[in-house]
Design goal:
Helix content is about 40%, strand content about 20%. The chain is an alpha+beta fold and about 425 residues long.
């Protein structure tokens, strides 16, 4: 038998020729290269589906809380038995920044795989109970899962984070306002305080971008609220006077009304109470004509007017925190810190604008010890801020190759000056 035929028998005795074997091996290599990425992709899709399921459960629980507790629930964190960083760890997700309150939730991937396959997902809930789903499409593999969750609410810009952060601040302000009112009714319950003004959020959009205005603001705890003996009597001074007259008589009412209408409105000389003979043993803490109802409430009003920012210790040893005049109790310190940080960053932003508008040229850091944007380096020239690249190309002066001098002889000495 020819030698070539012997070689062929050796190669085919197991069912494959050499060429066929090479083709099979090449095919298996191609299949494995296709199968592994697809397998990973399907694993990521499963993670997204689980994240969506957890978000849906959290939103349902928040809605139930909204029905039971009112708008205060929107300012509180989601149930950690349903949605938490620990529960999301196995699916490569975590909360983004502080966006974990019922009013605004946003989760982001912890996976650094490129291209990104796990989109940012979240939701916001309005006072009326409307749930708006949100997502960020980072492009590529995130497009389909993002749109399947949020539809037209899918955003491709980081404006979503600003929008949800602002919603969270509003929800926290509402919750603080309601909690302060409830505490006041239980501990004081006499005179004037404030409840949340519904018009303060009547113009808030349900989708990015955020809108700061008189009808979408954190400063909504300004609706007058009058109570006597822990019960609401109305929203006007006349309603309070009527309730006071019904209990103590007309002369008592006239005396308290005179305190309110004096010029300037009467304020107790200190945080101690005063009494009015015709009103029996009832104690009054007048601040600018209104009865604050208790020593603590009087001190809070005093600090709001004179020390509107920072920690304050009251006469009973308790602490309160004020941020731009908004009150936070000791249990709300974390919410106060968020407010203080945002307030400081807003002021730093104003400093940046003012510095740029002054035609300053160079680098500028508003506050090296401040939070977030305050310690960021800004580059500016020509009346505006620039990116670092723009600054390097358009603003930074190039060193001169040589200087030209003009010199003149004065007496026995030469004096020279640079002329370019």
């Amino acid at each position: 038998m020819p030698e070539s035929e012997k070689r062929n028998i050796h190669l085919t005795k197991n069912g494959f020729t050499l060429i066929e074997l090479i083709v099979v091996l090449a095919g298996l290599g191609i299949l494995s290269s296709l199968a592994i990425p697809n397998y990973l992709k399907y694993l990521d899709y499963a993670k997204v589906d689980q994240a969506k399921s957890m978000l849906n459960s959290a939103a349902a629980d928040c809605l139930q809380g909204l029905r039971n507790e009112g708008t205060a629930r929107l300012g509180k964190i989601t149930d950690e038995a349903i949605l938490s960083n620990e529960l999301m760890e196995s699916i490569s997700y975590e909360f983004k920044a502080d966006l974990k309150n019922c009013g605004s939730v946003l989760i982001t991937t912890t996976d650094s795989t490129t291209p990104q396959r796990l989109p940012d997902l979240g939701f916001s809930i309005s006072e009326s109970g409307k749930v708006s789903k949100q997502a960020v499409d980072a492009g590529g593999e995130t497009t389909a899962p993002a749109k399947s969750w949020a539809g037209s609410n899918t955003s491709s810009v980081e404006g979503l984070e600003d929008f949800l952060n602002y919603n969270a601040l509003i929800a926290a302000a509402q919750a603080t306002c309601k909690e302060n009112l409830d505490n006041w009714l239980k501990s004081t319950g006499n005179g004037k305080t404030y409840s949340w003004n519904s018009s303060a959020t009547s113009g808030c959009p349900s989708n990015p971008p955020k809108a700061e205005s008189a009808t979408c603001t954190t400063n909504g705890c300004n609706a007058p609220y009058y109570a006597l003996d822990g019960k609401k009597v109305g929203t006007t001074a006349d309603s309070y006077d009527a309730a006071l007259a019904a209990k103590y008589g007309k002369i008592c009412t006239e005396k308290t009304k005179a305190k309110r209408e004096s010029t300037p409105p009467y304020t107790n000389p200190s945080s101690t109470s005063i009494t009015i003979t015709e009103c029996g043993a009832k104690q009054f803490w007048f601040y600018e004509g209104e009865d604050a109802g208790s020593q603590k409430a009087w001190e809070v009003l005093y600090h709001k007017a004179n020390n509107p920012n920072g920690e304050q210790t009251l006469s009973d040893g308790s602490k309160v925190y004020l941020c731009e005049g908004k009150l936070f109790e000791e249990s709300e310190k974390s919410a106060y810190e968020i407010c203080a940080r945002n307030s400081q960053e807003f002021k730093c932003g104003k400093l940046v604008d003012e510095k740029a508008e002054s035609n300053y040229s160079g680098e500028f850091i508003p506050d090296i010890n401040g939070p977030g944007a305050c310690k960021k380096t800004y580059y500016m020239c020509d009346g505006s801020t620039k990116t670092f690249t723009e600054y390097e190309e358009k603003c930074k002066k190039q060193p001169r190759m040589r200087d030209e001098f003009m010199c003149k002889l004065t007496g026995n000495s030469w004096y020279c000056e640079i002329i370019n």
